[in-house]
């Protein structure tokens, strides 16, 4: 991958921020009007062509605008994302709601999943390699234009109940950082190409598990990542004395 110059980074970040907020292809006119980039319209257009050639953007057939590719979204997460952490009051509220279930692993994961769905407004999932799957916030995905596609929604919902799918996913996650994300083809199924999954790995006793959220690939990373990290860390804090 070729390195990006400062101008390209500024344009790419603006495109991704706009796309996360709107789910719409982004054109040079939108960038010029909504963002103070200090770059001429002609230069913006030329750089968008270069970013497309480099694989960071793709053209949508019905529009003159561009949308970020999974490669661009990964670059954004690794280099450009600004995290928006939960407030201390929000963290304490979550902890108080789940603390009473600290001695019941199943109920704990069920309540953690429910709270995660409420906090992120996404579809939350927790699962272990022993075959337990907990979900909450299924209705949240229906708010996203990507899931107006009934075939995509049916496929995603069907896989929520597939224990082997999640067990296989756990086995293939990178073991370096407990927090990570999968986009599009990373999920291993062509039908889930428009989706993203942000997760935190954890251990409960002799069980490996993950808790995370599923949504469109343009998931609001800056808000969701620190929330996932807090929930995963909280699980490990609760179970460390078992």
- Look at the structure and name the CATH superfamily of the largest domain: GAF domain
Task: Give the quaternary arrangement of the chains.
Answer: single chain
**Radius of gyration, Cα only, in angstroms?**
19 Å
Uncertain spans: none
User: What order do the SSEs take from the amino end to the carboxyl end, as H and E?
Assistant: HHHEEHHHEEHHEEEH
* Overall mean pLDDT: 90
CATH fold group of the largest domain: Beta-Lactamase
Count of all domains:
2
Question: Tell me about the biggest sheet?
Answer: 5 strands, antiparallel
Global structural class: alpha+beta
Question: How helix-rich are the residues, as a percent range?
Answer: 40-55%
- How do the strands of the widest beta sheet line up side by side? 4-3-7-6-5
Q: Could you say what the CATH architecture of the largest domain is?
A: 2-Layer Sandwich
How far do the termini sit from each other? 46 Å
What general outline do the C-alpha atoms trace?
elongated
